[in-house]
# Entry
Amino acid sequence: MPLLDTGISTVAELGGAVVNLMGREPTGSADWSVFAQYYSAGAPKTIFAKTLAELGEVYLPRKGRELEPGARQLVRSISAALIRFPRLHSMASRSYRNVCKTLAALRAQAR
# Structure
């Protein structure tokens, strides 16, 4: 049962759990699996929680967090290429998130 549609993600209730599906692509039943994002490059990123409060602010849009379409496609294609190598994919993903956080902190200091 859909709970929220923020425009960049959808929050729904599924079997007593709250699920956040990132992206606006139409989803199939296979995309609702906990493992879907690891086995299918086209599956949306999903976050499962017991309550909406446990999701925190993950479903809310953040100013300046959206990538340009070309950069977003580059990140997706790199992720798709590395998905077969879980450790390498995890390391690259963690490094990417750290770089994004560092850049956001530097931008905030510059203001």
Observations:
- The radius of gyration is 15 Å.
- Helices lie at 36-39, 69-82, 86-110.
- The chain has three helices and four strands.
